[in-house]
Design brief:
Distance between the termini: 21 Å
Strand content: under 5%
Helix content: over 70%
Number of helices: 11
Radius of gyration: 19 Å
Largest sheet: none
Shape: globular
Length: 311
C-alpha cells in the first residue's frame, strides 16, 4: 500500500511540476499578446491548469478505468470552487472583479449540458458531439474577446518558451501514468471504487496547479486572473473530459455520480456565480461575506471528501 501511495504522490508531483512549467511559459507568451487578466485566466492559465485532468483522463481510459476520469473531472470542479475559491475569498474581499456576463452564462450552460449528458448515467457519442459543439462555441467566444491590436511585436524568448511547453507535456504524460496506476491500485487495496479515488485524491492532486496559479496571481493582486482561471478550468474539465470518455469507451456510471457528486458541483457553481457578481464593489457587506463564505466552502469540501471514504 505504501508503495502505491508513493507512486500516486510521485505522479501528482510530476503533474504539479509539469503544470507549473506549462502555466509559467504559456503565461509569458500570453502576456506578450497584451491580454487582460480575466481573459488570460480563462484561456492560457485555465488551459494549462486543466492539462493534468486531460492527461489523467486519457491515461484512465487507456488503463480501462473511465470511472476515475469522471470522478476526476467532477471532483476537480468541486475542489476548484470549494478549496481554491474558498481560500481565495479571504483575499478577494478587497478586490474589484471585472465580470463578463457571457463567461458566467457559458459556465452555467456547460454545467446544464453536462447534467443532461450524464442524467442517464452514461456518455454516448451523440452526447460527446454536443459537448464538442459547446467547446467550439466557447473557443469562438474567447476569440471574439481578443482585440485585433493586442499582439506585441516582441518575439524574444518565444523559442525557449515553446521548448519548455513541450517539455512540460512530457512531464505531464509521465505524471498522469503514475497517478492513474497508483490511484487504481490504491483503490483496490482500500476497498473503495476508482470513482472515489478520482473524486478525492486524484481530483485534489490535479487541482494543485490551479491552487498554485491562484496563489501566484493573488500575490500580484490579480484577483480577476483567479476568477478567470476557475471559470475556464471548470468549463474545460467538463467539455473536454466528458467527450474523451464518450468517444473512447462505453461506461455505465454509478447513480451517485449524478445524485451526489454532480449535484454538489452544480450547487457550488451556483454559489460561486452568485458571489462573484458581488465582486464589482468594495462594500462592507462584501468584506464580511467573502471570508465567511470561504470558511464555509473549505469546511464543506473537506466534509464531503471525508464522507466519500466513510460511505
Amino acid at each position: 500500500m505504501l508503495f502505491n501511495f508513493a507512486i500516486l504522490l510521485l505522479g501528482l508531483g510530476l503533474l504539479v511540476l509539469g503544470a507549473e512549467y506549462f502555466v509559467s511559459n504559456t503565461a509569458k507568451l500570453g502576456t506578450k499578446l497584451k491580454l487582460n487578466d480575466m481573459f488570460l485566466g480563462i484561456t492560457v492559465v485555465a488551459l494549462g491548469t486543466s492539462i493534468p485532468e486531460v492527461f489523467v483522463s486519457i491515461s484512465s481510459i487507456i488503463n480501462e478505468s473511465p470511472e476515475l476520469a469522471i470522478g476526476n473531472s467532477i471532483g476537480s470542479n468541486i475542489a476548484n470552487i470549494g478549496l481554491i475559491f474558498g481560500v481565495s475569498c479571504f483575499f478577494l474581499s478587497k478586490s474589484i472583479l471585472e465580470i463578463n456576463l457571457r463567461d458566467i452564462f457559458l459556465l452555467i450552460l456547460s454545467v446544464l449540458i453536462s447534467g443532461y449528458v450524464i442524467f442517464d448515467f452514461s456518455i454516448s457519442k451523440s452526447d460527446s458531439f454536443i459537448l464538442i459543439c459547446f467547446l467550439i462555441l466557447f473557443v469562438l467566444h474567447l476569440l471574439r474577446q481578443k482585440k485585433e491590436d493586442s499582439f506585441s511585436e516582441e518575439e524574444k524568448g518565444i523559442a525557449k518558451n515553446i521548448f519548455f511547453i513541450f517539455l512540460s507535456l512530457v512531464i505531464l504524460l509521465l505524471g498522469s501514468e503514475f497517478t492513474v496506476n497508483g490511484g487504481k491500485n490504491l483503490a483496490l487495496m482500500l476497498g473503495v471504487s476508482n470513482t472515489v479515488i478520482g473524486l478525492t485524491l486524484v481530483a485534489i492532486g490535479t487541482s494543485l496547479p490551479e491552487l498554485a496559479a491562484s496563489f501566484s496571481a493573488l500575490k500580484r493582486k490579480k484577483g480577476n486572473m483567479v476568477i478567470g482561471n476557475i471559470i475556464g478550468s471548470n468549463i474545460l474539465n467538463l467539455v473536454l473530459i466528458f467527450p474523451i470518455i464518450g468517444f473512447a469507451t462505453k461506461v455505465i456510471l454509478d447513480t451517485k455520480i449524478f445524485e451526489r457528486d454532480f449535484l454538489l458541483m452544480s450547487l457550488f457553481t451556483a454559489i460561486f456565480v452568485i458571489f462573484i457578481t458581488l465582486g464589482d464593489n468594495q462594500g462592507k457587506v462584501k468584506k464580511i461575506l467573502y471570508p465567511f463564505l470561504g470558511v464555509i466552502l473549505v469546511i464543506w469540501t473537506f466534509y464531503y471528501q471525508m464522507g466519500l471514504f466513510l460511505n
